[in-house]
Protein 1
Amino acid sequence: MKRLLKIKLFRTLIIGPRLIRPLASASNLKKFLIYLLTFINYRLILYILILRTTLILLITTY
């Protein structure tokens, strides 16, 4: 079940926000908010990883 959700999430992220239709029901809004939160979390994790690697490289060079 969770794996299916993840696949759907990645598909929606790949397709992009331009295909998101005007949200009709509250359940759709909830789903959209969950997608948004997960997307932000993934980006944050990526940024943290990049920052960590750059810091490690800087420490090793000096």
Note: The chain has a mean pLDDT of 74.
Protein 2
Amino acid sequence: MEFSFGPHGMDEPSWAPLDARVLGALTWSGRKPGWPSGMEFGIQYAHAKSKDESVARSADFLDFRLGASWEWRPADWLILCVGAGPRLAHAEVTRPGTLAEVTENDASLGVYAHVGTFVVVHGGFSIGLEGQSADGSDYDVLGASRDAAAAEILLALRWSF
């Protein structure tokens, strides 16, 4: 199980004026002995605030990921991992309306990949960095097509049990 967090890296010009995105992700992975690869399931959530509330107030992003994973231990203290697979994402944007706020949402279907390096701290607990990239069909919100691609480098905490 892995928990990772950090800045959400989406295409800035496509999403202006939304900024200051914070992302949290939870991933479960496992491998049956004798199998060439493991499986992983991940959920991640990001929230963005707006610099210009006359255009949009905030946005929420939710990703579901299911894919193949691989893990190597080149040393007792070092864990390397990679994973990739399909991604289903959802964006919900709140913007000002005539009398009340209006919520727009759309879904994106695409792919993701990630790579991580972890240092074992004690027993099954390790800490490291996770780089991930995802792409998919664009979101249609705020009157335009918005890029669904994202790339992040996150701080990650990992527990093996």
Note: The mean pLDDT is 90.
Protein 3
Amino acid sequence: MAKEENKKVGLLKYLTFAPESRTDGAVSEPIQTGRFRYFGYVFKRRNGLLMFANIAFVVTLLPLLAVFIVMAVFGAEKLSYMLGSITTPPYFMSGIGFGLSSTASVLQAKLDMLNIYSLMFLASGVAMLFVSIGLAGIMPVAMKFIWNDSFVCKKDNYGNQVPRVMVEFFKGIKKYWWQMLIMGALMGIFLAGAGNAYVYFLGRLWQGLAGAGEWILIIFVSIATLLFLMFTVYMLPMIVSYDIPFMQKVKNSLLLMLQMFLQTLFVVAFLAAPFVIVALTDGFINVILVALLIVYGGVVYSLILSNLLQYYSEKIIVPVYQARFSKARPKSKKKK
């Protein structure tokens, strides 16, 4: 029996255990309705309050949105002409492979457009620093609603206590900004690095120069990016859930990622699906999806991540914590 329990615990025995950083100091009660239903309950009941936090979060998204708006309005081709100070766009023979204009070849025009995408990924990486500040505000608000924790409140006209979500949002920024800024820098590095790796690979492929080195690079970058996204699934809510040193939060997130590898892989695929659809579609569908992501994305994603971590806390972390410390209590009694 002991061997079977150790197999179930696995890497989780190396977790750093600590109480949840709830304001009221209580222990979160087990969710009886199921996590999917509980997510729907919290989102439906607290949607109005969560929208205030989402508005503040969208403000920190503006630099990132500006990058994509510029790309959507002008397009990579026109921006490449502007960057190259080309006032008269060249004309190309479709499918022939060379330009009718003496200014550029078809291949060179495609490579120039890749340079624009390279700049886009670099600018997006920098914009992630601003996004991280918004995450420092919205993540603790989402986690408080998942915990059903106490809020700073004020009375409305009917005498009801209404959570002051914006106060909690800025309290979160004050407390977690530097930890989220580290994560924002890492997200920016991966976004800019992975994006430029794919741009470089496409450029070499179009030129017929892609060899084993380029293929190894793109495979390595793809795997590293996937692992980082899986780590981020736990790290973002972990930052606001426990008052333990930052590196202990990193360790806990890595352990959960490795122990729950397949489950986390599914979660990443599910969360990435809307962005993949946006990237592959255009027109009316694209506009609707982008609008939904802007209006509800921050709230929905922060609630999903908070709900996921709290699920593992309830089902795994807390039982392991209780098992470890219940064994230590009899020993302390014997010493007395």
Note: Residues 283-335 form the longest helix (53 residues).
